[in-house]
């Protein structure tokens, strides 16, 4: 099945965010791994972000009609449904973060958790969008 | 997932309209090609406005394009 420009861009974003999420999650469990921070993010940038930008630019030049296509009512419904799940994750994360502050956990732990939850909510949003694009609403 | 009770003849009407493509219909009705594809497959029920716009493209009454089948039927 031929994927649309919108879906392809979402897949790129999903892969990049998932890699960042997994990396942060591992560095929380194994602190030594966080030493490779800068190198890892440079790799993410070159491996994912540059091809993503190249894809968007090349596609926009070759097929500007599809690249600039406006959202229709189905896209709006899909976005609203995906945002709903994303907000649920963010609300749940607030409770966990507040609990961490209440239990006087070090801020060095709270910051990655905050980043993890924020990234996770976006991953959920993108995944739900891709799910609804395929399964229908 | 909720069962879709709305059926449609969009595919047949496109064929009758000189084999109009999904893209052409989408442009005329103000939707994306993917939306037309999902309507035809019965995966998406359009809003009343989009349903009227699609019927207007084919120059037919709405009931010719979309039909509602109730649970009792």
Give the arrangement of secondary structure elements:
The complex is a heterodimer of chains A (137) and B (73).
Chain A lengths: L4 H25 L7 H26 L1 H4 L5 H30 L4 H29 L2
Chain B lengths: L5 E3 L1 H7 L5 H8 L3 H9 L6 H11 L3 H4 E3 L5
Antiparallel strand pairs in B: 1-2
Helix pairs in contact in B: 2-3
Q: How would you describe the overall organization of this protein?
A:
The complex is a heterodimer of chains A (137) and B (73). Chain A starts with a helix and ends with a helix. The mean pLDDT of chain A is 83. Chain A is built from 5 helices and no strands. Chain A has 137 residues and is mainly alpha-helical. Chain A has helices at residues 5-29, 37-62, 64-67, 73-102, 107-135. With 73 residues, chain B is mostly helical. Chain B has a single domain (8-60), classed as Orthogonal Bundle (434 Repressor (Amino-terminal Domain)), CATH 1.10.260.40. Helices cover 53% and strands 8% of the residues of chain B. Chain B contains 5 helices and 2 strands; from the N terminus they run βαααααβ. The longest helix of chain B is centred in the last third of the chain and has 11 residues, at 48-58. The mean pLDDT of chain B is 89. At the A-B interface, helix 4 of A face helix 3 of B.
């Amino acid at each position: 099945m031929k994927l649309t420009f919108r879906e392809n861009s979402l897949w790129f974003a999903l892969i990049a965010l998932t890699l960042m999420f997994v990396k942060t999650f591992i560095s929380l469990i194994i602190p030594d791994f966080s030493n490779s921070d800068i190198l890892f993010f440079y790799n993410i940038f070159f491996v994912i972000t540059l091809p993503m930008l190249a894809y968007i630019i090349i596609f926009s030049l070759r097929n500007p009609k599809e690249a600039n296509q406006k959202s229709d009512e189905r896209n709006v419904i899909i976005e609203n449904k995906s945002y709903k799940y994303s907000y649920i994750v963010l609300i749940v994360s607030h409770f966990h973060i507040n609990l961490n502050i209440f239990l006087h956990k070090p801020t060095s732990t709270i910051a990655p958790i905050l980043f993890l939850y924020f990234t996770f909510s976006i991953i959920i949003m993108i995944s739900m969008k891709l799910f609804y694009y395929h399964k229908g609403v | 997932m909720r069962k879709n009770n709305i059926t449609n003849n969009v595919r047949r009407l496109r064929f009758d309209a000189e084999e109009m493509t999904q893209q052409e219909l989408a442009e005329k009705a103000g939707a994306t090609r993917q939306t037309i594809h999902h309507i035809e497959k019965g995966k998406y029920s359009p809003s009343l406005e989009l349903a009227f716009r699609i019927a207007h493209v084919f120059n037919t009454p709405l009931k010719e394009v979309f039909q509602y089948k109730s649970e009792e039927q």
